[in-house]
């Protein structure tokens, strides 16, 4: 076979592999199950788009009514709200897919900058692993904007450390925007100062290291570039005051990050199990790459990865951030390790020199890509073109019962369902929702966790005598305690949720019903499309 034909076969195989990875990325980012906070983000985001004023006072709950509401991600919500107002729920799905692909593309572009073109397959292969964990953090929420801006930050740092120091001037305006979009800006700021500090340390200490040791580290940056990086980092940090809350935003962000919340799954440490296996695999590859690579190392890259590993290990919601950084920074070193031990893979490499194997592999990859795209539209989905509300996770049937039978007033509600309730029940106020410490006091939050567990709680913080009815998981200990100890009566129940009222006579439309009404077989089955319109009106004072 001619060398041209061999090169063509190799090119076809490489393209098929890249397309397969991109299809996998589309599949991962096209997950359309709504996040519990989506209702809130759209509610307040659309409100800001329509009024130009962020929410400052709560009027959606009865436990914190009239108290300050600290909307720290109002601009991120406004972006989601604008997309929703223009394109509805399908637009939200398209938006998060685009943001996901942009994040993936920028991260892998950073890797390509320091990678031999012949070894780009290593970056694509690593990307296939990383994308699984990156997509874990890609619900339709402002958090995805932090993922995108982290990838951009890494691209800028890469350019600055490549000698193009004027790119550092982009940090102040970027962080001025980021601080208004999402609280993940705090992590980005820590990484920026860590990179500046690590680069300074490397440039200062490298000249004092023995020649054999210094050979393993890059030359660092010029003094002018380091000074510019520090100036821009300080200016970026100062931009934290450019927001409706002023310097109070920085204080709140630090306090919120330091607050432990074991009751919320995404704030718990990453566990060594199958659910986040890709995170630990990426960590292992990163460690192997930097330990065994012969490429000169840059201390700022190691500092970024170590910090993101620590914050990811502390809270599982940060594992996607580590994998974004790993995708950007690890492949060049991983490719060098592969080249270093290439002789161990010689038989495997020789196998793919065969024309028949290359053609067969290309065909298989094309078929896999087609299968992935079909799965993206069908797997665990009923309405693949829009966001979906799974009935097994959200109390759709229970809310229908509440609306049909005129239940209203102060609602004692399960944490995950609070925002769905104030969206769907305009004549009710909730006891708590996912806004957490941006609205509710620590005492109110703690009282709810104890109530859910059926434990004694602070009635000064949560006075359930003020509640008119409750919507809780059907197997929740707190629901049983309400019925047994406080005399509340169940008026509706299904496999997911139970609706209890303190006084059935308060709601005339319950008269004559055999209580509790049992939900039908389909109460917790199927997936409903997310509505394409905002609530008709807000709860009245």
Q: What proportion of the residues is helical, as a percent range?
A: 40-55%
Main beta sheet strand tally, sense and closure: 6 strands, mixed
Low-confidence stretches: 537-541
Shape: globular
* Helix-strand sequence: HHHHHHHHHHHHHHHHEHEHEHEHEEEE
| Biggest β-sheet: strands ordered side by side in the sheet | 3-2-4-6-5-7
Structural class based on helices, strands and sheet pairing:
mainly alpha
What is the β-strand count?
Answer: 8
Discrete helix count: 20
Distance between the termini: 81 Å
- What portion of residues belong to β-strands? 5-15%
Arithmetic mean of pLDDT: 91
* Rg result: 27 Å
Can you give a write-up of this model?
By secondary structure, this protein is mostly helical. Helices cover 55% and strands 6% of the residues. The protein has helices spanning 3-29, 38-51, 74-113, 120-134, 143-161, 171-181, 185-205, 211-214, 223-238, 248-258, 277-292, 299-314, 319-329, 331-340, 346-351, 355-378, 396-404, 418-424, 442-452, 477-485, and strands spanning 388-390, 409-413, 428-430, 469-473, 489-493, 497-501, 517-518, 527-529. The protein has a six-stranded mixed sheet, sandwiched between helices. Strands 1-8 form a two-stranded antiparallel sheet. A hairpin with a 3-residue loop joins strand 5 (489-493) and strand 6. Helix 3 packs parallel to helix 5 (143-161), helix 4 (120-134) packs antiparallel against helix 13 (319-329) and helix 6 (171-181) packs parallel to helix 9. The longest helix is centred in the N-terminal third of the chain and has 40 residues, at 74-113. Residues 537-541 have low confidence and may be disordered.
């Amino acid at each position: 076979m001619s060398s041209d034909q061999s090169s063509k076969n190799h090119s076809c195989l490489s393209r098929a592999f890249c397309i397969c990875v991109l299809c996998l990325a589309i599949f991962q980012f096209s997950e359309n199950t709504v996040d519990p906070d989506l209702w809130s983000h759209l509610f307040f985001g659309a409100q800001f788009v329509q009024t130009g004023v962020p929410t400052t006072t709560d009027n959606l709950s009865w436990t914190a009514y009239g108290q300050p509401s600290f909307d720290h991600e109002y601009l991120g919500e406004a972006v989601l709200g604008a997309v929703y107002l223009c394109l509805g729920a399908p637009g939200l799905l398209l938006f998060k897919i685009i943001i996901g692909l942009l994040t993936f593309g920028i991260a892998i572009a950073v890797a390509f900058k320091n990678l031999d073109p012949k070894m780009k397959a290593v970056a694509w292969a690593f990307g296939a692993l990383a994308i699984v964990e990156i997509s874990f953090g890609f619900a339709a929420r402002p958090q995805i904007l932090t993922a995108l801006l982290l990838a951009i930050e890494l691209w800028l740092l890469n350019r600055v450390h490549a000698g193009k120091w004027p790119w550092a001037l982009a940090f102040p305006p970027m962080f001025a925007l980021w601080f208004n979009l999402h609280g993940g800006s705090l992590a980005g700021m820590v990484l920026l100062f860590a990179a500046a500090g690590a680069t300074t340390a490397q440039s200062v200490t490298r000249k004092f290291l023995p020649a054999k040791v210094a050979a393993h580290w890059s030359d660092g940056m010029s003094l002018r570039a380091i000074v510019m990086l520090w100036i821009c980092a300080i200016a970026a940090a100062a931009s934290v005051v450019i927001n409706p809350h002023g310097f109070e935003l920085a204080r709140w962000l630090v306090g919120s990050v330091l607050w432990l919340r074991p009751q919320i799954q995404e704030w718990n440490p990453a566990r060594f199990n199958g659910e986040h296996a890709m995170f630990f695999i990426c960590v292992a590859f990163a460690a192997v790459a930097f330990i065994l690579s012969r490429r000169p190392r840059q201390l700022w890259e190691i500092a970024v990865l170590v910090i993101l590993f620590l914050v990811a290990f502390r809270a599982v919601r940060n594992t996607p951030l580590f994998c974004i950084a790993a995708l950007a920074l690890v492949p060049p070193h991983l490719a060098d390790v592969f080249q270093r031990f290439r002789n161990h893979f010689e038989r495997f490499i020789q196998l793919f020199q065969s024309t028949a194997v290359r053609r067969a592999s290309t065909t298989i990859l094309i078929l896999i890509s087609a299968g992935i795209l079909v799965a993206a539209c069908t797997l665990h989905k009923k309405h693949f073109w829009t966001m979906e509300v799974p009935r097994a996770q959200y109390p759709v049937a229970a809310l229908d019962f509440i609306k049909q039978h005129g239940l209203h007033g102060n609602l004692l509600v399960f944490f995950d369902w609070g925002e769905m309730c104030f969206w769907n029940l305009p004549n009710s106020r909730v006891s708590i929702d996912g806004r957490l410490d941006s609205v509710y006091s620590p005492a109110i939050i703690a009282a709810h966790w104890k109530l859910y567990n059926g434990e004694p709680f602070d009635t000064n913080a949560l006075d359930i005598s003020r509640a008119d009815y409750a919507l809780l998981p059907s197997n929740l200990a707190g629901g049983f305690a309400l019925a047994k100890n406080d005399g509340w009566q169940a008026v509706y129940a299904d496999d997911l949720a139970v609706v209890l009222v303190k006084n059935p006579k308060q709601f005339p439309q319950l008269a004559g019903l055999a209580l509790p009404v049992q939900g039908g077989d389909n109460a917790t089955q199927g997936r409903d499309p997310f509505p394409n319109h905002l609530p008709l009106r807000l709860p009245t004072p």
